Amino acid sequence: MNTTVTLDESWKAALSAELQSPYMGELRSFLKTELAEGKVIFPKPSEYFAALDLTPLDEVKVVILGQDPYHGDGQAHGLCFSVRPDVRTPPSLKNIYKELEADLDVPRAPHGHLVSWARQGVLLLNSVLTVERGLAASHRGRGWEKFTDAVIARVNQLEHPVVFLLWGAYAQKKAQFVDSSRHLVLKAAHPSPLSAHNGFLGCRHFSQANEFLEKNGLEPVDWQLPEKL
């Protein structure tokens, strides 16, 4: 997007056509104008592509899809559901931890920083990568969805099988870009307190993901987050 943005080389190569496309040019102009008008955008520009930067394309084993970034001060840092180490764990992430504990007996982490997962090949991707402070969904329809469609399509083309965890109707729209005969697509309700009891809690997606990875000769994910960062 600009010189402050970091993006792993594997993704730069795979998405070069998207990054140079007219719609991304329009998105760049939109973000530049918003910032010039003094609007606060989350996350900061250097973290727009943090999910792609932390998880190189050929290392992706699991994809977790969010909607758009947290819109509160100090929360978003470019990974879906994740917050900075010193920020209170949001309700949806608390439910993710609750399911992890029930499914794999993983203790609930005292923080909401998910970088450890990203470094193990879990692509923590939001469908929309920016948001205006205090205004949920404010950057939908600006081009990010098309870009993240391309990200999912590129992961779908990987030679090794990948697990897609699609929680909620918004994330499940991306399933159209995934060949479910090669990859494992697991769907459930969103972990938000508003919907978690409608099928997210009890879904056992984490154990199913690891079983699939091991069955296909891939290293399972250690879902237990480090206590200290």
UniProtKB/TrEMBL annotation:
Q: Name one Pfam family in it.
A: UDG
Question: Main localisation, per the record?
Answer: cytoplasm
Group of enzyme by EC: hydrolase
* Keyword tags: Cytoplasm, DNA damage, DNA repair, Hydrolase
Source taxon at top rank: Bacteria
Q: Which GO terms describe its cellular component?
A: cytoplasm
Note the PROSITE patterns from the entry. U_DNA_GLYCOSYLASE
Active site annotated at which positions?
D68
GO terms (molecular function) for this protein are: uracil DNA N-glycosylase activity
Catalysed reaction, written as an equation: Hydrolyzes single-stranded DNA or mismatched double-stranded DNA and polynucleotides, releasing free uracil
Which positions fall inside the Uracil-DNA glycosylase-like domain?
53-213
- Give compartment(s): Cytoplasm
What is the recorded function of this protein according to its Swiss-Prot or TrEMBL entry?
Excises uracil residues from the DNA which can arise as a result of misincorporation of dUMP residues by DNA polymerase or due to deamination of cytosine.
* Family indicated by similarity: Belongs to the uracil-DNA glycosylase (UDG) superfamily. UNG family.
Protein name as it appears in the record: Uracil-DNA glycosylase
Organism lineage reads as: Bacteria, Pseudomonadati, Pseudomonadota, Alphaproteobacteria, Hyphomicrobiales
